[in-house]
Amino acid sequence: MNLNKTLIAIAIAIVFTFNAYAYDNYSLFSDGIDQNLVTANSSRLVKLTKGDEVKAAYIYDDNGRITQRDYTDSTFDYTYNSDSTIKSARALMKRNPNSFIRHTKENFISEYMYDNEGKVIREDKRVFNDLDTNFEGVPKATYQIMYLYDNTGQLITRNQVLQSGELGVNLKVNYTYYDNGRLKDIQEIKASLESHKNTLLLKYYENGEIKQAIQTIFGSGIKTFDIEYVNDFYMIYGVYYVDPLKEWKVDMDFFGLSFHPIKKLTETVGDKIKSYDYTYQNDDSDFLADSLSLEFLSGDFKLNGEYKMINQP
User: Fold this and answer.
1) What is the mean pLDDT of each run of 10 residues along the chain (313 residues)?
2) Contact of 200 with 185, CB cutoff 8 Å
3) Which of 16, 75, 155, 201, CA to CA, is 20 to 30 A from 247?
4) What's CA 195's distance to the chain center, in Å?
């Protein structure tokens, strides 16, 4: 950072006082991050580039809410209700993308319904053919997904039931929590194969960031992710604001869940280790990084990348 801690602390206090973008819950699924810190920041990441290539571009509305995120492999669009809850989400894959990363595995449109307390209780989802270039055709499958809560208001189950289509899957997702209310465990069960369970166990740092995730995929074994973050309370990871769902699923996007930038992510499968090391640079007075360097290491294979991050105030 090019400002000292005292000046940054004053800036944060000012944003807390005058921020016009604050609303109760940033995303459909909650996380362990202090929402006062989340809503205090009004700067947004608008573009990620590598050389002359745009890897990601983001569009927001006047309230700082993401309305579109566009990648080399897919595009996501979002609409909102008047109370800032998510009304709909849709994703469309691109043909022959020049990308090694897949941000979605399907073309879909989801619409959300809420109870009087603002908790989502139902999701109507339409899934389209993988080769579709728009949503004008007939869905290959439709689902009704019911969200069930315990008497304390915590989400404990999502039931996905096929409504139409022959190749769809009925799926139950169960959630358990630590005593402090943070999500502990996700368990995904296919109704037709209840013994085929996929799970994710989460451990946290004191500030609510994910410290470790242990993923167990039926038939594929165990994968462990260990995550370290930059030691700078005032630096914020702009990618945190580009996913208004932050869906709780076994193959979670840990980068989209990170409020502070990830310094190192280590992925371990048996005796094989992959590591991703990130270095950030902030060149102005906001809290978002303006560039990052990536070093990827897997055995004897090493790869480096340089990226620019363009932010809007």
Assistant:
1) 38 32 57 80 93 94 93 94 93 78 90 92 95 92 95 93 87 94 92 81 93 91 94 88 87 84 95 95 88 94 94 85
2) yes
3) 16
4) 28
